[in-house]
Amino acid sequence: MAHVSDLIARDIEQYLKAHERKSLLRFITCGSVDDGKSTLIGRLLYESKLLFEDQLAALAADSKKIGTQGGDLDFALLLDGLTAEREQGITIDVAYRLFSTDKRKFIVADTPGHEQYTRNMVTGASTADVAVILVDARKGVVTQTRRHSYLVSLLGIRRVALAINKLDLVGYAKDVVDRIEQDYRAFARQIGLTEVVCIPVSALKGDNVTAPSANTPWYHGTTLMGYLETVAVDDEAQTGPFRMPVQWVNRPNLDFRGFSGRIVGGSIRPGDRVRVLPSGKESTVARIVTKDGDLEQAVAGQSITLTLGDEVDVSRGDMLAAADAPPGIADQFEAVVIWMDEHQMLPGRPYLLKIGAKTVGVTIATPKYKVNVDTLEHLAAKTLHLNEIGVCNLNVDQAVAFDPYAENRDTGGFILIDRLTNNTIGAGLLHFALRRSQNIHWQAIEVDKKAHAALKGQRPCVVWFTGLSGSGKSTIANLVEKKLYALGRHTCLLDGDNVRHGLNKDLGFTEADRVENIRRVAEVARLMVDAGLIVLVSFISPFRAERRFARALVAEGEFCEVFVDTPLDVAEQRDTKGLYKKARRGELKNFTGIDSPYEPAEHAEVRLDTVALAPEDNAELIVDHLRRMGVLEPL
Amino acid sequence: MTTLTHLERLEAESIDIMREAVAESEKPVMLYSIGKDSSVMLHLAMKAFFPSKPPFPLLHVDTTWKFREMIEFRGKTARDLGLELIVHVNPEALAMGISPFTHGSAVHTDIWKTQGLKQALDKYGFDAAFGGARRDEERSRAKERIFSFRSAQHRWDPKMQRPELWRLYNARKNQGESMRVFPLSNWTELDVWQYIHRENIPVVPLYFARKRPVVEREGALIMVDDERMPLAAGERPVQKSVRFRTLGCYPLTGAIESEAATLTAIIQEMLLATTSERQGRVIDFDSSGSMEKKKQEGYF
C-alpha cells in the first residue's frame, strides 16, 4: 500500500506520530445506475495508490472476464462484493469501503442508484458527514439527482459535493458544467442544501479526481480528493447541548456505580449538572471514568462512563442530558417515516421503536401524507409501502426523551422493528411532540375494574376465538355464552359479522382494515373487562400480531385464546355462508385461507378439534379451562 | 472544538458496539482467535467495561493445528487479564483425525472451524458472539452488517440483512437465533497496527521477523512448527528470517521473508508493501467467492 510520503522509509516513528492525528470522514456516494459511481470510488482507491498488487492482479483478471471496459481496468469491479451481484453487474445493497490518505481516513457508503433502493440510500446517508452526488455531464440534473439530493438533505447532511462526471464525453466543455451547476444550485437551495461544491471530473480518465486536470484549465476549484481531505467534520454535534443515552450500568462492586454510553451531543466536565430523563431527577457529574484515567472533559463521539454525585436511579435506556438544556419528553410525536420492508406499514399495528438505547412499543397512525421523492409533492396515503416516505403521528407506550431530528440526528432518529420477525422495517426522524400527549392525562377512576367485578361476583376475562371462516367459532362461542349464562355469569359476545354491521362498518377486508378491525374490537373487549364482564370475542383474527396486541391490553390471566383449528378443506366443505365458493370464483377478494393468509395460533390456551369433537363437547372444554383459570369456581 | 482522530472515533464506535451487544443479549461470548485483530478487540473490551471486567468469556475454536506460540500466547493473555477462556476442540474432527495435509484446506476449515464453532455456540447457548472481522479484508465482508443476524442453523443470508442506520443496532432475535457482532468492521489493517502501536498492545511474537524453519510449497513459505508436518522426498526445512501477516493453522498460513523485528518496522514494511494481507491465507483461494460461501454456511 504505497502511501505517498517518503517519511515512511525515512522516519517511520515521525510518520506514525503524524498519522495518529488523522481525522475520519464518512461520506456517501449517490448517483444513477450509469453515472459511474463505482468507477469513481475505484478510481479514488487507484489514484491514491491504495491498491495492492494482488488486488490489482485480481482486478485485471476480473476486468477481462466480466468487465465492461473492453479489457481495460474496470474499477467498478473493486466494489461489487457479493458473487451473485457481481454476475448480474449491479450492486444491490449498501457496501462500506475503507481507505486512507496521508491526511484522512475515509469510510465510503456505496449505495445503488436504482429507484427501488431508497432504503439503502437512507441507510448509507444516516451515518455520513458528507455526500458526493454524481451526475452524468451529458444528462445533467435528472430526476434521480433530485431524489438523491432530497434524501441526503432529509437525513440531515448539509455538505454536498456535486461531481459532474464523464467530462471526457462532452469535450471538457465549460459551458456544460456551468449550466449543470446553475441548475443544481437552484434546486439545492429549494431543499435547504446550502454548502454545495461542484467539481467537474472524469472518473474513467482520472480528471480532477486527485490531481487538477490539464483538460480543464478553466476550473480553479479543488479536486474531489482535495475536497474530501479538507471539508470540516464532526463540528456540529459538539456545539449542541450535552446528550448521552445510557447503554449499560457499570457495577463492578457496591462502591462503584457508573453509567456507560456514547456522547451524542455537546460535551461534559466533572461538576456539570445533568438531568436524567424521563424521570427528571438531577445530579452533578462526579467523574468521567475511562481505563486510561479520568478525563477533564469528554465530547460528542466519545464512549465514556460517568459517575454522579447523588444516588439517583438511572437505568439502560435513560438519557443523561444538560440540566439547563434538556431534551423534550413525550409519548406522541409527528415524524417522517421511511418504510423499508416488503410488507406494507399497517396503521394501528403494534411495532417496536428503538431510539438511543431505549426500545418501546409503538403504533403508527394513518399517514398525513406521503412524499413523492421525485417531485416533492405531498400525496394522500392510507399506508406506506417499501421505499415510501410519509409523515405520520406515532404513539409510544412509554414516554421517551428526544430532540427534533434537525437538531440532533442521534436523539431524533429511530428505527422500527417488527415484533414477530424482529426485522428492521422502517426508520424515522422525529419532528416534534404532539400537544395532546402533554395535555391529556389518564383519568384516575375510583370505581375500578375490581369494583365492577366484585359487584357482579365474578372475575372478568376475554375469551378470544380465532380460526378460519366456517371453522365453527360462532357456534361454539354461542354455546359457551349459554353455559355461562346458566351459571349466572355476566357476559357479552362480540361476533365478527355483527360488529362489522355497526362499529366497524367503515372497514373493508384489506390487510390494513383487518388490522384496524381487530384493534377496535380488542379495545372494546378491554373496556368491557374493565366493566367486569366475561367477553367472548369471535373473530377470524388472522394475524398473530393483533392477537398478541389484544392479549397485551388486559392483565395477565385475563386472556384465553381459543384456536378453533379446523383444516381449510373441512371449513371449505362446510361453507355455511357460501363464501368459499364466491372466493374461489374470484368474487370475494382478500378471503382468509384463499388469497389472504391465516397465521395459526402459537400459544393458544385452548386448541379445539372440530373434526373429532362436536360443538357441545368443545364448548365444555372451554368452560373447563375457565375453571382452571379461576374465572369460574371449580366443580 | 476537539476534533477526534480517526483512531479515537474508531475506538469509541467499537466500545459502543460492544456495550450495546452485551446489553441486548443474554449470553455473549468473544471469539478469540489469538491474532492481532483479536488482541485489539480484547483490548477494546477491557476499556468498554472498565472498571468491570468484560462480562463474557473468550472462546477459542481450536483446530489442534495452530502455531505453538499462539497457544502459549492464548493462555498467558487469559491469565494476565483474569478472563475465562473456553477452548473448544471439535471431538468429531479429532476422532476423524482431520488434517490439512490429508484432507485439504477446504475440508479442514469446514470441519474444524465452521462445524467446531457451531458446536461450541450450541453447546454453551451463546446468543451473541463477537468476531474481529474487518470490512477491508475481503469483498463480501464490505456488505455485512456490524450486527449480523444468524438463523438457528447459524446461516447468514446476504439478501435478508437488516438495514443499519445511525448508531441504532437491532439486536433482537427469537429463541435459538443469534447475532455475530463485528466491532472492528470499520478498521483497516493499518488502523489495527497503528492502534497496537499507540496503545502498546501485546501480540503473538510470530508477527515479528525471526529465523524460523520453513519449506516452500506452491509459492508459499510454510513453517515447520511441529513433527506432524510431512516432508516430501528431498524437502528440507531451511532457516529463514520470516514473519506472518495473519495467523491461522500453521500448514495453511504463508510466511513472508522479512527482517522487520519491531512493531514500527513491520508497519513500515506494510506501508511499503505491495500485497494485501489475505494473500498469505490459503483458504480464500479455493474458489472465487469462497469466503461468501463459507459465511453462508456459518463460518465467521
Q: Count the domains of chain A.
A: 4
Q: Helices and strands of chain B, in N-to-C order? A: HEHEHEHHEEEHEEEEHH
| Domain count of chain B | 2
Structural class of chain B: alpha/beta
Low-confidence stretches of chain B: 280-289
Broad shape of chain A: globular
Give the integer mean of the pLDDT values of chain A.
86
Q: Rg of chain A from C-alpha positions?
A: 31 Å
Question: Tally the helices of chain A: what do you get?
Answer: 20
Please state the overall shape of chain B, judged from the principal axes of the Cα atoms: globular
> Which percent range describes the beta-strand content of chain B?
15-25%
Oligomer type = heterodimer
Biggest interface, CB < 8 A: A-B, 87 and 73 residues
Unreliable parts of chain A:
81-91, 439-444
Please identify the top-level CATH class of the largest domain in chain A.
Answer: Alpha Beta
CATH homologous superfamily heading of the largest domain in chain A: P-loop containing nucleotide triphosphate hydrolases
Brief descriptors of the model:
heterodimer, A: 635 residues, alpha/beta, Rossmann fold, Elongation Factor Tu (Ef-tu), domain 3, 4 domains, 7-stranded antiparallel β-sheet, 20 helices, 28 strands, 29% helix, globular, B: 300 residues, 6-stranded mixed β-sheet, 4-stranded antiparallel barrel, 8 helices
